[in-house]
Amino acid sequence: MTKLTLRPAVPADAGQIVAFIRALAVYEKLEHEVQASEADLARDLFGAAPKVFCEIAEWEGKPVGFALWFYTYSTFQGRHGIWLEDLYVDPEVRGKGIGKALLVHLAQRCVKEELGRFEWWVLDWNEPSIAFYKSQGGVLQDEWTKVRVDGDALQRLGQL
After folding, report:
1. Catalytic-residue membership of 133
2. What's the pLDDT tens digit per position in 60-82?
């Protein structure tokens, strides 16, 4: 019997996904930014026309990690890609290949669907993750600077 199973998330997983998001936020020292609720995830992952997707990793039948992702588009390549928004594995099962299995699973989707890119962010201080991603063929894109507009600034920019 294999100890690791990867499967698409189902509506009953919404609470577990929120718990994973909170645990990831604690690790990343960003817990103060988490606003997502179980209802938000249920709506966006399992509604009539989902635009975001999630894979659940189970170790010996217990949920121990997740990968939440969505499709992107590259005008330069003229192809869709996958953006990995979050990847998390419970600390007690790290080192068992679960994170790698989630990455491989999404990379296989990219290859099967003839997508052009598989991308994600990593915090610049997160050396263990940076080393892991590099070992999987990831290349850091240091020449780009992220831009964000949210909160009051978004409200002002989007005023009708």
Report:
1. yes
2. 999 999 999 999 999 999 999 99
